[in-house]
Amino acid sequence: MTNSSKAAPSTVAVALHGVSKHYGNVHAVDGVELTVQRGELFGLIGHNGAGKSTLFKMMLGLIAATAGEIQVAGTSVRGSDFRVTRRKIGYLPENLVLYDNLSALETLRFFAKLKGADQASCPALLEQVGLADVGKRAVHEFSKGMRQRLGFAQALLGKPDVLFLDEPSNGLDPMAIREFYAHLRDLREQGVTIVITSHILADLQERVDRLAIMASGKIQAVGSVHALREQLDLPLSIALRVEPSAQAELKAHLQAISGVDLQVVDGEVVVRCPRPVKMAVLAALSPLGARLIDLHIHEPSLEDLFFGLRS
Q: How far is CA 83 from CA 108, 115, 299, in A?
Protein backbone atom coordinates (compact mmCIF):
# COMPACT_ATOMS: atom_id res chain seq x y z
CA MET A 1 0.00 0.00 0.00
CA THR A 2 1.36 3.42 -0.97
CA ASN A 3 1.52 6.09 1.72
CA SER A 4 0.32 9.28 0.03
CA SER A 5 0.82 11.53 3.06
CA LYS A 6 3.44 14.23 2.76
CA ALA A 7 5.93 15.18 5.44
CA ALA A 8 5.18 18.47 7.14
CA PRO A 9 7.52 21.26 6.04
CA SER A 10 10.40 21.93 8.41
CA THR A 11 10.05 24.89 10.73
CA VAL A 12 13.82 25.41 10.61
CA ALA A 13 15.08 27.93 8.06
CA VAL A 14 18.79 27.86 8.91
CA ALA A 15 20.66 25.04 10.64
CA LEU A 16 24.37 24.86 11.49
CA HIS A 17 25.95 21.76 13.02
CA GLY A 18 29.57 21.75 14.17
CA VAL A 19 30.53 24.51 11.73
CA SER A 20 34.14 25.69 11.74
CA LYS A 21 36.33 27.82 9.51
CA HIS A 22 40.06 27.75 10.04
CA TYR A 23 42.71 29.86 8.35
CA GLY A 24 45.86 28.06 9.40
CA ASN A 25 46.04 28.40 13.17
CA VAL A 26 43.31 31.05 13.23
CA HIS A 27 39.87 29.63 14.13
CA ALA A 28 37.60 32.32 12.69
CA VAL A 29 34.53 30.15 13.38
CA ASP A 30 34.85 27.28 15.83
CA GLY A 31 32.24 24.54 16.26
CA VAL A 32 29.07 26.61 15.87
CA GLU A 33 25.71 24.96 16.58
CA LEU A 34 22.75 27.16 15.69
CA THR A 35 19.19 26.99 14.35
CA VAL A 36 16.96 29.82 13.13
CA GLN A 37 13.23 29.22 12.78
CA ARG A 38 11.19 30.13 9.73
CA GLY A 39 9.71 33.60 10.03
CA GLU A 40 12.08 34.55 12.84
CA LEU A 41 13.90 37.87 13.16
CA PHE A 42 17.21 36.66 14.53
CA GLY A 43 20.10 38.84 15.69
CA LEU A 44 23.79 37.94 15.64
CA ILE A 45 26.05 40.19 17.70
CA GLY A 46 29.70 40.20 18.61
CA HIS A 47 32.82 42.34 18.67
CA ASN A 48 34.88 43.00 15.54
CA GLY A 49 36.63 39.77 14.59
CA ALA A 50 34.14 37.58 16.46
CA GLY A 51 33.41 35.62 13.27
CA LYS A 52 30.00 37.05 12.30
CA SER A 53 30.81 38.01 8.71
CA THR A 54 32.67 34.73 8.13
CA LEU A 55 29.62 32.85 9.40
CA PHE A 56 27.38 34.85 7.06
CA LYS A 57 29.56 34.03 4.05
CA MET A 58 29.51 30.34 4.88
CA MET A 59 25.72 30.34 5.25
CA LEU A 60 25.52 31.94 1.81
CA GLY A 61 27.86 29.36 0.32
CA LEU A 62 30.38 32.07 -0.59
CA ILE A 63 33.18 30.35 1.32
CA ALA A 64 33.41 26.70 2.29
CA ALA A 65 33.38 25.56 5.89
CA THR A 66 36.44 23.69 7.15
CA ALA A 67 34.12 21.34 9.00
CA GLY A 68 30.45 20.91 9.79
CA GLU A 69 27.16 21.11 7.92
CA ILE A 70 25.04 24.14 6.98
CA GLN A 71 21.50 23.99 5.63
CA VAL A 72 19.52 27.02 4.46
CA ALA A 73 15.86 26.58 3.49
CA GLY A 74 16.29 22.82 3.78
CA THR A 75 19.21 22.68 1.34
CA SER A 76 22.86 21.97 2.11
CA VAL A 77 25.07 24.85 1.04
CA ARG A 78 27.52 22.24 -0.25
CA GLY A 79 24.95 20.53 -2.45
CA SER A 80 24.32 21.08 -6.14
CA ASP A 81 20.73 22.16 -5.39
CA PHE A 82 21.88 25.20 -3.42
CA ARG A 83 22.44 27.18 -6.62
CA VAL A 84 18.67 27.18 -7.10
CA THR A 85 17.93 27.83 -3.42
CA ARG A 86 20.28 30.82 -3.39
CA ARG A 87 17.94 32.67 -5.77
CA LYS A 88 15.47 32.82 -2.88
CA ILE A 89 18.04 34.25 -0.48
CA GLY A 90 18.70 37.97 -0.05
CA TYR A 91 22.01 39.34 1.20
CA LEU A 92 23.14 42.82 2.15
CA PRO A 93 26.88 42.79 2.92
CA GLU A 94 28.41 45.26 5.35
CA ASN A 95 30.31 46.95 2.52
CA LEU A 96 28.25 46.78 -0.65
CA VAL A 97 30.17 47.62 -3.83
CA LEU A 98 28.12 49.57 -6.39
CA TYR A 99 28.88 50.93 -9.85
CA ASP A 100 28.89 54.68 -9.27
CA ASN A 101 28.07 55.64 -12.86
CA LEU A 102 24.87 53.58 -12.97
CA SER A 103 21.60 55.06 -11.79
CA ALA A 104 19.72 53.48 -8.90
CA LEU A 105 17.24 51.85 -11.27
CA GLU A 106 20.02 50.58 -13.55
CA THR A 107 21.80 49.18 -10.51
CA LEU A 108 18.75 47.22 -9.41
CA ARG A 109 18.14 45.92 -12.92
CA PHE A 110 21.78 44.81 -13.09
CA PHE A 111 21.47 42.83 -9.86
CA ALA A 112 18.09 41.46 -10.94
CA LYS A 113 19.64 40.10 -14.12
CA LEU A 114 22.45 38.45 -12.16
CA LYS A 115 19.95 36.86 -9.78
CA GLY A 116 17.41 35.89 -12.42
CA ALA A 117 14.78 38.07 -10.73
CA ASP A 118 12.00 40.00 -12.44
CA GLN A 119 13.43 43.33 -13.61
CA ALA A 120 9.92 44.76 -13.77
CA SER A 121 9.85 44.69 -9.95
CA CYS A 122 12.72 47.18 -9.65
CA PRO A 123 10.70 50.46 -9.66
CA ALA A 124 8.42 49.13 -6.91
CA LEU A 125 11.42 48.12 -4.81
CA LEU A 126 12.90 51.61 -5.13
CA GLU A 127 9.60 53.02 -3.92
CA GLN A 128 9.54 50.54 -1.05
CA VAL A 129 12.91 51.78 0.25
CA GLY A 130 12.15 55.45 -0.34
CA LEU A 131 14.26 55.99 -3.47
CA ALA A 132 11.53 56.28 -6.10
CA ASP A 133 12.22 60.00 -6.64
CA VAL A 134 15.94 59.47 -7.29
CA GLY A 135 15.79 56.31 -9.38
CA LYS A 136 17.40 58.03 -12.38
CA ARG A 137 20.21 59.67 -10.41
CA ALA A 138 23.73 58.23 -10.61
CA VAL A 139 24.82 56.32 -7.54
CA HIS A 140 27.91 58.53 -7.10
CA GLU A 141 25.53 61.32 -6.08
CA PHE A 142 24.06 59.25 -3.26
CA SER A 143 24.76 59.70 0.44
CA LYS A 144 25.84 56.68 2.49
CA GLY A 145 22.30 56.27 3.77
CA MET A 146 20.87 56.30 0.23
CA ARG A 147 23.42 53.69 -0.84
CA GLN A 148 22.35 51.55 2.11
CA ARG A 149 18.70 51.82 1.07
CA LEU A 150 19.66 50.77 -2.45
CA GLY A 151 21.59 47.84 -1.01
CA PHE A 152 18.51 46.79 0.94
CA ALA A 153 16.43 46.99 -2.24
CA GLN A 154 18.83 44.63 -4.06
CA ALA A 155 18.60 42.19 -1.14
CA LEU A 156 14.81 42.10 -1.65
CA LEU A 157 15.04 41.16 -5.33
CA GLY A 158 13.22 37.94 -6.11
CA LYS A 159 11.09 38.03 -2.93
CA PRO A 160 13.56 36.06 -0.80
CA ASP A 161 12.50 33.50 1.78
CA VAL A 162 15.63 34.15 3.86
CA LEU A 163 17.40 37.50 4.33
CA PHE A 164 20.96 37.93 5.62
CA LEU A 165 21.64 41.55 6.58
CA ASP A 166 25.15 42.50 7.72
CA GLU A 167 25.18 45.89 9.53
CA PRO A 168 22.19 47.12 7.46
CA SER A 169 21.59 50.35 9.40
CA ASN A 170 25.03 51.81 8.62
CA GLY A 171 24.60 55.41 7.48
CA LEU A 172 20.85 55.55 8.17
CA ASP A 173 19.41 58.42 10.19
CA PRO A 174 17.02 57.67 13.09
CA MET A 175 13.88 58.06 10.94
CA ALA A 176 15.31 55.78 8.25
CA ILE A 177 16.24 53.18 10.88
CA ARG A 178 12.67 53.20 12.17
CA GLU A 179 11.33 52.76 8.64
CA PHE A 180 13.86 50.00 7.94
CA TYR A 181 12.76 47.95 10.94
CA ALA A 182 9.12 48.54 10.02
CA HIS A 183 9.95 46.91 6.65
CA LEU A 184 11.52 43.99 8.51
CA ARG A 185 8.41 43.52 10.66
CA ASP A 186 6.26 43.43 7.52
CA LEU A 187 8.57 40.87 5.93
CA ARG A 188 8.55 38.72 9.05
CA GLU A 189 4.74 38.76 9.09
CA GLN A 190 4.90 37.47 5.51
CA GLY A 191 7.00 34.52 6.71
CA VAL A 192 10.44 35.78 5.67
CA THR A 193 13.31 34.62 7.89
CA ILE A 194 15.75 37.42 8.73
CA VAL A 195 19.24 37.07 10.19
CA ILE A 196 20.76 40.43 11.06
CA THR A 197 23.98 41.73 12.59
CA SER A 198 24.43 45.19 14.06
CA HIS A 199 26.91 47.03 16.25
CA ILE A 200 24.05 49.27 17.37
CA LEU A 201 22.75 46.97 20.09
CA ALA A 202 19.93 49.32 21.09
CA ASP A 203 18.45 48.87 17.61
CA LEU A 204 18.18 45.11 18.09
CA GLN A 205 17.15 44.96 21.73
CA GLU A 206 13.39 45.37 21.32
CA ARG A 207 13.17 44.18 17.71
CA VAL A 208 14.61 40.68 17.43
CA ASP A 209 12.82 37.50 18.47
CA ARG A 210 16.05 35.85 19.55
CA LEU A 211 19.74 36.54 19.22
CA ALA A 212 23.11 34.85 19.49
CA ILE A 213 26.15 36.41 21.12
CA MET A 214 29.37 35.44 19.39
CA ALA A 215 32.97 35.77 20.59
CA SER A 216 36.23 34.20 19.44
CA GLY A 217 34.44 32.24 16.74
CA LYS A 218 32.04 30.57 19.16
CA ILE A 219 28.39 31.09 20.08
CA GLN A 220 28.45 32.11 23.73
CA ALA A 221 24.70 32.36 24.34
CA VAL A 222 21.42 32.12 22.43
CA GLY A 223 17.93 33.26 23.39
CA SER A 224 15.53 36.15 23.67
CA VAL A 225 16.71 39.26 25.49
CA HIS A 226 14.46 38.27 28.41
CA ALA A 227 15.87 34.71 28.49
CA LEU A 228 19.45 36.01 28.44
CA ARG A 229 18.66 38.36 31.31
CA GLU A 230 17.42 35.38 33.31
CA GLN A 231 20.44 33.29 32.29
CA LEU A 232 23.12 35.85 33.17
CA ASP A 233 21.31 37.07 36.30
CA LEU A 234 22.73 40.60 36.08
CA PRO A 235 21.58 43.06 38.75
CA LEU A 236 18.89 45.58 37.91
CA SER A 237 18.44 49.07 39.26
CA ILE A 238 15.38 50.89 40.55
CA ALA A 239 15.46 54.70 40.58
CA LEU A 240 13.13 56.20 43.21
CA ARG A 241 11.93 59.66 44.02
CA VAL A 242 10.72 59.82 47.59
CA GLU A 243 10.01 62.61 49.99
CA PRO A 244 13.20 63.50 51.91
CA SER A 245 11.59 62.52 55.19
CA ALA A 246 11.03 58.97 53.86
CA GLN A 247 14.64 58.19 52.88
CA ALA A 248 15.65 56.87 56.30
CA GLU A 249 12.54 54.69 56.51
CA LEU A 250 13.19 53.37 52.99
CA LYS A 251 16.73 52.42 53.96
CA ALA A 252 15.44 50.60 57.02
CA HIS A 253 12.93 48.61 54.92
CA LEU A 254 15.62 47.55 52.43
CA GLN A 255 18.38 46.62 54.89
CA ALA A 256 16.76 43.26 55.58
CA ILE A 257 16.89 42.21 51.91
CA SER A 258 20.07 40.39 50.91
CA GLY A 259 22.21 41.85 48.14
CA VAL A 260 20.56 45.27 47.98
CA ASP A 261 22.74 48.34 47.51
CA LEU A 262 21.23 51.80 48.05
CA GLN A 263 22.71 55.14 47.01
CA VAL A 264 21.35 58.69 46.96
CA VAL A 265 22.37 60.64 43.87
CA ASP A 266 21.18 64.24 43.46
CA GLY A 267 18.19 63.56 45.66
CA GLU A 268 17.24 60.39 43.76
CA VAL A 269 17.46 57.04 45.51
CA VAL A 270 19.05 54.35 43.34
CA VAL A 271 18.56 50.76 44.45
CA ARG A 272 20.64 48.00 42.84
CA CYS A 273 19.56 44.46 43.53
CA PRO A 274 19.84 40.89 42.25
CA ARG A 275 16.95 39.85 40.00
CA PRO A 276 15.55 37.21 42.43
CA VAL A 277 14.81 39.88 45.08
CA LYS A 278 13.17 42.41 42.76
CA MET A 279 9.65 41.69 44.01
CA ALA A 280 10.80 41.83 47.63
CA VAL A 281 12.26 45.29 46.99
CA LEU A 282 9.03 46.48 45.40
CA ALA A 283 7.02 45.08 48.31
CA ALA A 284 9.26 47.00 50.73
CA LEU A 285 8.19 50.24 49.05
CA SER A 286 4.52 49.75 49.85
CA PRO A 287 4.62 51.22 53.38
CA LEU A 288 5.85 54.52 51.94
CA GLY A 289 2.47 55.13 50.33
CA ALA A 290 2.15 58.60 48.78
CA ARG A 291 5.63 59.52 49.99
CA LEU A 292 6.91 57.44 47.07
CA ILE A 293 6.64 60.00 44.26
CA ASP A 294 7.96 58.02 41.29
CA LEU A 295 9.99 54.97 40.33
CA HIS A 296 11.72 53.60 37.26
CA ILE A 297 12.99 50.03 36.85
CA HIS A 298 16.07 49.68 34.64
CA GLU A 299 16.49 46.15 33.33
CA PRO A 300 19.93 45.18 32.01
CA SER A 301 20.19 46.32 28.40
CA LEU A 302 21.44 44.20 25.53
CA GLU A 303 24.72 46.08 25.85
CA ASP A 304 24.86 45.13 29.55
CA LEU A 305 24.24 41.49 28.60
CA PHE A 306 26.91 41.59 25.91
CA PHE A 307 29.60 42.97 28.19
CA GLY A 308 28.40 40.89 31.13
CA LEU A 309 28.89 37.74 29.09
CA ARG A 310 32.41 38.79 28.00
CA SER A 311 33.55 39.77 31.51
A: 21, 10, 45
The model's pLDDT over 187-223, given as tens digits with 9 standing for 90+, comes to 999 999 999 998 888 888 889 999 999 988 999 999 9
Ranges of the chain whose pLDDT falls below 50: 1-8
pLDDT value of position 308: 76
Chain segment 2-15, per-residue pLDDT in tens: 444 444 457 999 99
Residue 231 neighbours by CB under 8 Å, 6+ apart: 221, 223
Identify the structural domains of the chain with CATH numbers, from first to last.
38-62+80-223 (3.40.50.300), 233-310 (3.30.70.980)
Cα–Cα distances (Å) from 76 to 7, 9, 66, 91, 178, in that order, read 19, 16, 15, 17, 34
CB 303 within 8 A of CB 225: no
Residue 9's pLDDT is 54
**What's the per-residue H, E or C state across the chain?**
CCCCCCCCCCCEEEEEEEEEEEECCEEEEEEEEEEEECCCEEEEEECCCCCHHHHHHHHCCCCCCCEEEEEECCEECCCCCHHHHHHHEEEECCCCCCCCCCEHHHHHHHHHHHHCCCHHHHHHHHHHCCCHHHCCCEHHHCCHHHHHHHHHHHHCCCCCCEEEEECCCCCCCHHHHHHHHHHHHHHHHCCCEEEEECCCHHHHHCCCCEEEEEECCEEEEEECHHHHHHHHCCCEEEEEEECHHHHHHHHHHHCCCCCCEEEEECCEEEEEECHHHHHHHHHHHHHHHHHEEEEEEECCCHHHHHHHHHC
Burial of 229 (0-12, 13-18, 19+ CB in 10 A): buried
Instruction: Please report the pLDDT score of residue 7 as a whole number.
Output: 43
